[in-house]
Structure formats: C-alpha cells, structure tokens
Amino acid sequence: MTPLQRYIVEEIATDHAEGLLSRREALRRLGLLGLGAGAAAALLAACSSDKTVSPATTGRAAANSTPPGAAGALPSTSITFSGPDGRTLQGAWAQAPHPRGGVLVIHENTGLTPFIRSVTGRFAGIGYSALAVDLLSEEGGTAAFIDPAAATAALSKTPQDRFVADLQAGVAELAQRVPGNKLGATGFCFGGGLTWLMLTSGTPQLAAATPFYGPFAGGEIHTQVAVLAIYGALDTRVDASRPQAEQALAQAGVPHETFVADGADHAFFNDTGPRYHPAAAAQAWRRVTDWYGRYLG
After folding, report:
1. Beta bridge mates, 101
2. Considering just the CA atoms, what is the radius of gyration of the chain in Å?
3. CA distance linking residue 127 with residue 275, whole number of Å
4. How many CA atoms lie within 13 A of 253 on its CB side?
5. Do the beta carbons of residue 112 and residue 94 sit within 8 Å?
6. How, if at all, do strands 88-94 and 77-82 pair?
7. CB-based burial of residue 117 (10 Å sphere; 0-12 exposed, 13-18 middle, 19+ buried)?
8. How many CB atoms lie within 10 A of CB 156?
9. How far apart are CA 226 and CA 249, in angstroms?
10. CA dist 123 to 71, 83, 144, Å?
11. Taking Cα atoms as reference points, which of 43, 58, 52, 37 lies closest to residue 9?
C-alpha cells in the first residue's frame, strides 16, 4: 500500500468515526479499495476507539456564506490536451484576462468536481490563469463515475508515477497558455499530498506551491519553490506529517511558511463539504493570494 493509498483508507475510517459515513457505507467504500470485510471492520473499530468527539459539522451552519474568492470568480471551461505516452488528458481551464501567473489546481480524491472547477475560476478572478488536471482522464474522466466512491477507488489503484507524469504534463500545458509567467501549484487533501509528491519528484517549472492539508510521504524537496503549507488545527491525522514536511523544506533551503487554521479540521476550505470552516477558509485564501503575489507576480 502506497502512502496515498493508506491516506485514502484512513480518511474513510476517520469519516466513519466522526459520523460522516455510516458503518455500512464505510465498509462498502473500503471494499471498493480492496480491503476484506474482516480487515475493514477492524480498521473502523480501531479508528472509532481513538475518537472521542465529532467536530465535523461546520459546513451546514455556513451554508449561506460566500466562499472566499467566489464573488469575483471567472468561468472555467472543459479542455483536453496532450499527456504522457500519447494519452489525452482532460481538465478545467480558467483564463485570467491579463495573467499575473498560472496556477495548477490539484483535486481531492473524488476527482475533478465542481468545487475544484470553481477554484480554478477563483484564481482566474484574482489574475492567475488556472488549470486543473483530471487525474481520471485515462478512465474516461471523473464524469464517467456515477458513484464518487468508485472514482476514489480508481484513484487509489493508479500508480503514483502516473499522477506525477500527468501533473507535470499539466504544468507544461499551463506554461504554454501563460508564456513568460511564473507558475504555482495548489492541491487539496489527496491533491495536497500530490503537491508534495511533485516537489519531492522534482518539478523545476514551479516557483511556488500551497498544499492544503496534504499528507507528506517523506523524501527530499528537489524543486526550488516557495512553499506555504496549510493545515487545520483539528486535523491531527494529516498534521502528524507536518514536522517532517517542515524539516524537508528547511533542509532544501527554500522560502517556506506554515499556516495552521485554529478550530478547523481536514478539508476546511471545501465549501461543499461538511467540514467547511468559513473563517479559516477566508484566512487561508488571503494567505495564498499574498503568497502568490509575492512569488508569482
């Protein structure tokens, strides 16, 4: 099991422990990932025993709030472009009228969702043309999956090398669409982990990155990039990898900062999810826009 696969498995168990998934649904999703009934049941029991509270209810209280950046967001369009090994990749593209830079947006473990499409538009609205690569392109794209859990299972079975290759193809496509501009990468959850993976794999075209609550799987940073790492204070599962990520950044000698949002849990920026935290999301968005203003233009 790769670190990203383990992350997906643990996320399902955590969602069950916090009351976001029923036991039946959690077992179904773990089964789609290939876990046997006994192993899945044991995992759910172990995770539930570690949880004493269920804080993941902020999204419903904030249903009427305007997500940060949404008011000025520009529309995104579906595109295709050339990928590795002659493959065709799908994506969402949002064009800024006079781009200050470009941002690669890396989706969560449910694929290229409306939320991720909206984020590309939010970046375009503040002057950064943005591209989100659909990492399920080879499987027909996220839209081919009626069941979001099946999309997650398909991502869990994808080799990490393919993720890196597809994302680097996305960076190359972005560079062609915003020639002469600096590039950044922003990923969420699973996509935050992939942002770290791009940095440890070496993606020299990137000038800045802002991974949101992404698990750091280890390794050295091989990209000279300014990194703003974003976490939620209640997200103990992902926060456990934060010291290792900060050590890797310090050893690489790159500009870096860490922002930990008080009172916020995992996925606090996703305004379509149950853990959405409007105040933390607004703070994070301000820090990201300031960071890109400093290191992209």
Report:
1. 128
2. 18
3. 28
4. 0
5. no
6. antiparallel
7. buried
8. 20
9. 9
10. 11, 23, 26
11. 43
pLDDT attached to residue 1: 78
Phi first, then psi: what are they for 80, rounded to 5°? -130, 155
Q: Mind listing the pLDDT tens digit of every residue in the chain (297 residues)?
A: 788 888 899 999 999 999 999 999 989 999 989 888 888 888 888 887 665 444 444 444 445 689 999 999 999 999 999 999 999 999 999 999 999 999 999 999 999 999 999 999 999 999 999 999 999 999 999 999 999 999 999 999 999 999 999 999 999 999 999 999 999 999 999 999 999 999 999 999 999 999 999 999 999 999 999 999 999 999 999 999 999 999 999 999 999 999 999 999 999 999 999 999 999 999 999 999 999 999 999
Helix axes 37-50, 23-32, angle to 10 degrees: 130
State how far the Cα of 297 lies from the Cα of 291, in Å rounded to an integer.
9
Lookup result for tokens 């996305």: 170
C-alpha distances in Å from residue 236, one per residue of 51, 231, 265, 266: 11, 9, 8, 9
Q: How many other CB atoms are found less than 10 A from the CB of residue 182?
A: 18
Beta bridge partners of 186: 105
- Alpha-carbon distance values, 296 to 101, 168, 193, 214 (Å): 6, 18, 22, 21
Compute CA 69 distance to the chain's CA centroid, rounded to the nearest angstrom.
17
Query: How far, in Å, CA of 195 to CA of 192, rounded?
Result: 5
Closest CA to 214 of 168, 290, 266: 266
Tally: H helices and E strands in the chain: 11, 8
Sign of CA dihedral 252, 10, 187, 282: negative
Q: What count of other Cβ atoms lies within 10 Å of the Cβ of residue 34?
A: 14
